[in-house]
């Protein structure tokens, strides 16, 4: 009942770009009103993603201030706007993908919200959506990985990385992963990586060549960016796909297309949103992800659930390479 919705709420905004000191915790932000096609969600668990740090630092433009970071959360629908809300109604337990997640309440587009199956715990749903869908769409659409394919996954113990390892195992691929510590290497192996390389010490190109009989991998999934790009290109097999999907170490410098001719390589720079832009695409992939989670018993690794006030510490852990799996915020 809408009378129980308060006028103000807690949330985190930024008024300028910069370090974690620009993250401002507020207790008097206005609770948004759902517009046409939107649902108002009381968020229980908010997902942190590396992209949140890009908006905070200014690597990606926010388009104005004040700006509320965060692209996904799990929660309960407390009211609905006019128009089509895809049968979502008050009381439904949902996960959603949009903007403005670092807050108690978000008015989210119903097109990108979906009910959570009863068997999936709230924290798992919150941890899975953005990173799980990224991994799933990358291995289907950026490069459709087939059984027996050799692939390379950078930052394999990270949020997207652990989903890639698990989904690639489910597909029957042969996965080589990279990570920077012994603990991360163990975790990625447990989650399905067949071979792991400590890229803080060992040479990735020669290890990959050794493991693949000199042939290289049919696809590289590279969310690390600046520091790994060149080695990733070297690791590709002839006609392989270089899937550059992020920049945790910094943006990849411009590339000349002539470089692709050495192996007739494909170079992609996809975003999740362009794979799930329509309701139909979003719903199909989200349901498939839930099916993987319930039938294939995916391990949903949650690094820590941080109180919303401690968002700066969470960003420091993520950017300081201290985390594995998912970081969540609790408003
Ligand atoms: P992660 O949990 O993977 O964290 C990033 C990891 O990158 C770190 O844990 C670290 O692992 C590794 N890393 C390597 N070099 C650095 C560095 N210099 N600074 C910090 N980390 C470094 O984050 P996410 O799962 O949220 O995201 C992974 C990547 O995927 C990001 O680049 C993100 O932007 C991208 N992404 C892209 C999407 C898209 O639509 N294109 C959607 C979702 C994510 P280690 O210590 O093992 O090196």
UniProtKB/TrEMBL annotation:
Main location: endoplasmic reticulum
Domain spans labelled Enoyl reductase (ER): 18-329
Cellular location(s): Endoplasmic reticulum membrane
Signal peptide, first to last residue: none
GO terms for MF: GDP-Man:Man(1)GlcNAc(2)-PP-Dol alpha-1,3-mannosyltransferase activity; GDP-Man:Man(2)GlcNAc(2)-PP-Dol alpha-1,6-mannosyltransferase activity; quinone reductase (NADPH) activity; zinc ion binding
Record has Membrane as a keyword: yes
CC terms in the record's Gene Ontology section: endoplasmic reticulum membrane
Assigned keywords, A-Z: Endoplasmic reticulum, Glycosyltransferase, Membrane, NADP, Oxidoreductase, Transferase, Transmembrane, Transmembrane helix
Range covered out of full length: 493 to 823 of 823
Name of protein: Probable quinone oxidoreductase
Biological role: Mannosylates Man(2)GlcNAc(2)-dolichol diphosphate and Man(1)GlcNAc(2)-dolichol diphosphate to form Man(3)GlcNAc(2)-dolichol diphosphate.
Organism, as annotated: Cryomyces minteri
